[in-house]
Amino acid sequence: MNQHRYSETQILCGMRELWERHQTQWFFLPRYEPFQPDDRIDVHLQSGIPRWLGEEIDFSDLVDLCKSLQSCFRFECTRQEWSDYFRLDVCRDDFEAWERLHAADFSYRRVAQFIAARATAISFEPVNVIGQECGPAGAFYGIQELVGEVKKRPRDFGPGTRIRDVLTGNAFALFWLKVRWITAQRAPDLALFDRRLGRQVLCFMLAYVSFMGAILFSLQVDPSCYFFSAFTLIPLTGLVGWLMERRSNPLPPELQTFRDLAVWMSVDRSHNPIQ
To answer: The whole model's pTM is what?
Structure first.
């Protein structure tokens, strides 16, 4: 990995992880097919809704896409820079001309190249410790920066601190998303755990509705009471999901502490250099 820039491979992996996370948040139903690097972005995004194929780009969707990419890869640029790079000004004025002359360049690979030229990478390179090069120490310093990106004012932690003692909820999800794409998706995939947890919360919600419905029906109370009790499900489900997420631990036994992760990342980097 370049000390100052992420590779095209890493960024493409990051986009895949970002799409997967969005799909998981939407009740685990994939909205889009997995993309290939040279797929056109607008065609791919519209592929989940066939009746949209061939329509002109919705620029509001592109604004959201650009913002999510800038947040994920921690870089800043203006809407004009995106527009100039992909000649979106031509698309806005003459879609057919853009389709003919520039649309082929509106691909995921080109977006990865655009990001790679702007996003400054966190270094996980080995560092010198008492006169010797130490890979795990360099990886740990990189992990410290990574934690700082996903959580404001994190508690102090050392190599032996458990990851879940520092990171929970959305901060942990973002942290692991970044670990996944920085290692080119070789770190363990925790998406299955997210889906399983979501299904458990959904089962709780259905059980609650059924239980309350049975009780109110047996008491022959006013039906409006049932709807009122069902309305209380919203904050209750959120509380149950919050508690379950914090009490659970999706990490494998061999990656419980920051030291575990630093050692694994340093070994992975030495065996699988990212181009």
So the answer is: 0.74
